[in-house]
Design goal:
By secondary structure, this protein is α/β, with parallel strands linked by helices. It has 3 domains: about 5-240, 4-Layer Sandwich (Glutamine Phosphoribosylpyrophosphate, subunit 1, domain 1); about 250-445, Glucose-6-phosphate isomerase like protein, domain 1 (Rossmann fold, 3-Layer(aba) Sandwich); about 455-610, Rossmann fold. About 35% of the residues lie in helices and about 20% in strands. An 8-stranded antiparallel sheet has the order 3-2-4-1-10-9-11-15, with helices on one face. The termini are close together. The model has no long low-confidence stretch (mean pLDDT about 90).
């Protein structure tokens, strides 16, 4: 949520800020702004709505910012206060200007104190209040860095802030106290700060991920790091990004989401190569690393996640229990941490987050570590908070995902969970051990089968169905077994990007209430591939068809009896015949992703940046 970019150096600062904020638009926002030095004075341009509105303000007076070489920028996702220009960042208090991510939990107490001292906030935000704290400390004689450090002693809550002052032109101070912050030295001199690494890739691949409680001080001389608690100077190691600018471009696709749907085969191959020791020829040869040893010790597994990652975890539960015979529990991180969970000895907790910054998932991992329970992370971002705070990490290698609605990161998470299932099966799953070599041979072919699927008749049929069903008043997605969590994910995608009411259900649950909603205006998407649950799912299809719903069926190309029951038929490619049913989610998922994408584009919604959503949910 929210995007931050700060820059000081020799380049045109406003250009760096705007280009960086463009790369952060995927995070979701409803207002934007920049602040920059014009001589020794700070000027601010901000507006509600999209970044284009800020650019219009800048373009109306090019002379005001053309020479600026220091500034900060922000895209805001509203929490405290409406998404208005007044509440947009940056915020100015006297000679202090700041941008802020996260939440100041004790903002009401701080506001009472500063109002009592005669200050008058101009916005409804909690963010602006931090500027008054910094102003006070500087008026007491502190320099900007020390003033920011002291001000944080008054703040409760997870947040990051980047601050400038007219008293110290050419200095940008950033603090990470929860929400992520990344820094890099500009090869041409100076430094860049941002809320994630994507704005930095254009200039350097050598970055520093700030630790919790780090302060970064940027100037034309480069970067220095200090402890927020003690003020002492710190040394921080750089990390090398394995992303490229080319991967951030649309490459001819109409939207990033469509590009990322088609990148899924590559994401799976890269994830496979990143986790396996390919020198070995035995099945599921996970490369030696701390996470493997933790898996070996697990008597039970608890997976915590949110949103799409939670759906991946649900499928992972099916796989691990089938193949490895290890008990698995799956919890929503936002619920788990607020009840009184019982976590027994021998349990390994796995936190899944594409960004590695999901606040609720991080909170659970921290809670478990306090209880000395071993923790694993599955994330797409090297250097993310989750990857550093868990005891060990398994990385997906999906590359940067710009579309807010997860696509390739979801299937990459699935691939990791299936690889872990196969690995554990060879050590725990006595009943399934003999099947594993043949299953592994099928698994390594999945990226190629998926690539065929993305170019098959299934995609043409999906587009046709979407075009004819865009006016439906609502959708139910139903499936059983492995297809049930895929149905949940399909419904979520349609809600996220097309703003249409959709529900995902276990097919057998329709008769327990939801079937009352079924009539001629509803569409039911039925996932019924040739698996152990196919016949039962078809029985449930008959129930909804009898009540007038439009039926979209997805199943084996040879399943003519199923096709005859459907108004719209999406056949899985014949290449999927004989594929183990465990692998079918990899083929069903892109069909549902494309179905939602096509409906959203017909409706004209902002597919890559859907309203009210953020890519990285860093608040609870």
């Amino acid at each position: 949520m929210c995007g931050i970019v700060g820059y000081v150096g020799t380049r045109p600062a406003v250009d760096v800020l705007i280009r960086g904020l463009r790369r952060l638009e995927y995070r979701g926002y409803d207002s934007a702004g920049v602040a920059f030095f014009r001589g020794s004075r700070l000027e601010i341009r901000k507006a509600e709505g999209k970044l284009e509105n800020v650019e219009k303000l800048l373009n109306s007076n090019l002379s005001s910012h053309g020479e600026a070489t220091c500034g900060i920028g922000h895209t805001r996702w509203a929490t405290h206060g409406k998404p208005t220009t007044q509440n947009a960042h940056p915020h100015q208090t006297g000679h202090v200007v700041l941008v802020h991510n996260g939440i100041i939990e004790n903002y009401q107490e701080i506001k009472r104190e500063i109002v009592a001292k005669g200050f008058h906030p101009k916005s409804e935000t909690d963010s602006e209040l931090f500027g008054f704290l910094v102003l006070q400390e500087m008026d007491r004689g502190a320099n900007l860095t020390e003033a920011v450090r002291r001000s944080f002693a008054h703040v409760q809550g997870a947040c990051s802030v980047v601050v400038m002052s007219e008293r110290e032109p050419g200095v940008v101070v950033g603090v990470r106290n929860g929400s992520p912050l990344v820094a890099a030295r500009d090869p041409l001199g100076g430094a860049i700060l941002a809320s994630d690494a994507q704005p930095l890739i254009e200039y350097t691949r050598e970055v520093i991920f700030l630790e919790q409680g780090d302060m970064a001080v940027a100037s034309r001389d480069g970067l220095r790091f200090f402890s927020l608690e003690s003020g002492r100077e710190l040394q921080r190691e750089t990390a090398t990004l394995d992303w490229s600018l080319e991967k951030l471009d649309k490459q001819g696709f109409a939207h990033y989401m469509l590009k990322e749907i088609h990148e899924q085969p590559t994401a799976l191959v890269d994830t496979l190569n990143g986790l396996l020791d390919r020198v070995r020829t035995d099945p599921f040869p996970l490369a030696e690393q701390p996470g493997v040893k933790l898996l070996d010790s697990a008597r039970e597994i608890l997976i915590v996640a949110c949103g799409t990652s939670w759906h991946a975890a649900q499928i992972g539960k099916y796989w691990i229990e089938r193949w490895a015979r290890v008990p698995v529990s799956v919890d929503l991180a936002s619920e788990f941490r607020y009840r009184s969970p019982v976590v027994g000895p021998g349990t390994v907790v796995i936190g899944i987050s594409q960004s590695g910054e999901t606040a609720d998932t991080l909170a659970v991992i921290r809670q478990m570590k306090e209880q000395r329970i071993p923790t694993l992370a599955v994330t797409n971002v090297r250097g993310s908070t989750l990857s550093r705070e868990a005891d060990a990490v398994f990385y997906t290698s999906a590359g940067p995902e710009i579309g807010v609605a997860a696509t390739k990161t979801f299937t990459a998470q699935l691939f990791v969970l299936l690889l872990l299932s196969g690995y554990l099966s060879l050590r725990r799953g006595a009943d399934s051990r003999a099947e594993i070599p043949a299953f592994f041979e099928q698994l390594v072919k999945v990226p190629h089968i998926l690539a065929d699927c993305l170019g098959s008749e299934a995609m043409t049929a999906t587009r046709k169905a979407a075009a004819e069903l865009v006016t439906s008043k609502g959708f139910f997605f139903i499936g059983r077994g492995y297809s049930f969590p895929v149905a949940l994910e399909g419904a979520l995608k349609l809600k996220e990007i097309a703003y249409i009411h959709a529900e995902g259900y276990a097919a057998g649950e329709l008769k327990h209430g939801p079937i009352a909603m079924i009539d001629e205006g509803m569409t039911v998407v039925v996932l019924a591939p040739q698996d152990a649950w196919r016949d039962k799912t078809v029985s449930n299809l008959e129930e909804v068809k009898a009540r007038g719903a439009r039926i979209v069926g997805i199943g084996a190309a040879s399943d003519s009896s199923l096709a005859s029951l459907c108004h719209h038929w999406i056949p899985l490619p014949s290449i999927t015949q004989g594929l183990d049913e465990s692998l079918l989610p990899f083929l069903l998922t892109p069909i549902l992703q494309l179905f939602s994408y096509e409906i959203a584009t017909i409706k004209g919604t902002d597919v890559d940046k859907p309203r009210n959503l953020a890519k990285s949910v860093t608040v609870e």
